[in-house]
Structure formats: C-alpha cells, structure tokens
Amino acid sequence: MKHSLLILMLLIASNSYSKSSILDGKSISPSQAVQLLDENNKEWSAKVKGVFELKVNGSGKDNKWGYLNSNENYRIKENLTIKLSKHIRKRLTKKFGDDPLEYLKGKTIRVKGEAKKVKIRKIVDGKKTNLVYFQAHVILERIKDLEIVD
User: Fold this and answer.
1) Calpha distance 135→115 (Å, rounded)
2) Contact 33, 22 (CB under 8 A)
3) In whole angstroms, what is the distance from residue 67 CA to residue 63 CA?
4) What is the DSSP letter of 23?
C-alpha cells in the first residue's frame, strides 16, 4: 500500500510540474501564465517556469525596480510584469543605448524565468490598506534571459 501511495504521489507531482514548465517547447503568453498560476494555485505563492512572450505595452518604476508590462493597465488580472532590478536595468541601458523601460515599449520580447503571484496591497490616499490583489511577475535574473522578438 505504501508503495502504491508513493507512486501515486510521484505521478501527481510530475503532472503538476509538467504544467509549470515550458508548454510543448513554446513560449507562454501573459494570459497562459496567469491561467497556469491559477490552475497551480495551492497558495498565492504558486510558480510557473518557462519562456514568456509578451508585447511591452507599458512600463514604470519605483525606488527598487523597473517594470515592463504586457498591458497599459498593470493592475488587471491578465497582465504579466517583467521586473528589472537597478543593476539589470543599468546593464540593459548600456546594451541598448537607452533605458529599457522606454526602448522596449511596443516591442515583443521573450523572457526566460519563473512567473509567480505577488501579493499587492492596495493604496488609498497614499496609505496601504488591508485590501490585496495579486499580480503575475517574472524577475529578469540575467540579461541573456531577455530576447527581443520584434
């Protein structure tokens, strides 16, 4: 019985991992990434590994990160955000000759990495509230993991 249970657990684990890897060797769209995160959602910290392809329709920054968004409105559920650290942003600026937050707008890119749900606290009148929503983020770890498609 223990042996059968172990085999069953391994089959379930391998099946759920296959959903989290590159889909048949193809790129994962923003909507597919969000859907896979929802399907694999044991908790809000679900992850999907793969190559994500998106047209950069918006960008932004804060004190720590630069953001490339698949939608102009980054708050909608279907948006996929690529996060760039200050270091990665500087290296990409050197490579492109311009800030990647501007240079990549309107371009289609592929990013190899891991998407995960990130809990965002809603801010009202400049103050964090107890209201939360989730966004799908991929942190660009290495500049070689970003490719411009067109």
Assistant:
1) 10
2) no
3) 11
4) B
Q: What is the dihedral of CA 58, 30, 127, 130, to 10 degrees?
A: 170
pLDDT for the residue 121: 87
CB contact burial 31-41 (16+ within 10 A = b; e otherwise)? ebbbbbbeeee
pLDDT 10s digits, 12-64: 444 443 344 434 468 999 999 998 888 766 555 678 999 999 999 999 999 99
Whether residue 2 is predicted with pLDDT greater than 90 in this model: the reply is no
Q: Which of 93, 33, 44, 103 has the alpha carbon at shortest distance from 68?
A: 103
Q: Which residues contact 102 (CB under 8 A, 6 or more apart)?
A: 59
d(CA 74, CA 136): 10
Task: Grade residue 128 by pLDDT with cuts at 50, 70 and 90.
Answer: confident
Tokens read off for 46: 């679900």
Q: Which amino acid is at 63?
A: N
- Distance between CA 144 and CA 120 in Å, rounded? 28
